[in-house]
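Morning, I've got a small favour to ask if you have a moment. I owe you a coffee for this, so here goes:

…
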Amino acid sequence: MIDLHCHVLPGLDDGAVTLEDSVAMARQGQADGISVVAATPHIRADHAVVIDELGARVRRLQRELDSREVPVRVLPGGELAQTRARQLSEEELRLVTLGATGAWLLLEPAPGPLGPGMCELVEWLAARGLSSIVAHPERHAGEGFAEQLLALRERGCLIQWTADFVAAASDGDEVLRLARLGLVHLLGSDSHSARIGRPVRLSAGFERLARACSPEWMAWMTQRAPRAIVAGERPPLAPPPA
């Protein structure tokens, strides 16, 4: 499995504080069957992340994992705030794409419900050759939530939900209805530490979705789409979700 949303780099934002915590997070992922983790520090005004340093920081963590024989590959990336995106240069935007391939950006919505501003940003990025993934929409539900997600999908955007949130869903929860409508494309751990909060774990969320979605959709979501994204490609056409 590939985790496309993880705050695994130490000492950058509100994620891992120490290198030991980063290693512990990678070991959590390994235990869950995760082989690739995208390091996605917050790119927003309240965190002093130097974008030009991200590649070196990822390589440093990878050397440490290799030296400890932790079989997890770390890729560069970022969780780019909706409120910050237009302030970055085109070079900076490409440096924080997932895998640094210059293709897919993980976007953090502005506080509050999803609104038309996110669609406008997705279109602005698309005009610059960049595709978008919206992170943790469950934190931005409001009036017309499903319609906002549909509008994003119509613009080629993918929607990434938090795995632990999905894992806890009951049979009648809205997220499962949205999944059957094809509005749950990816899961991410959005883990910030191995010590507290959400773990580096995807499997429980996928297991919950598998009870609501078709096997073909699950194969696309767990394997085909994430692999294409980290390769800087457009995922193949998605099958019917249910």
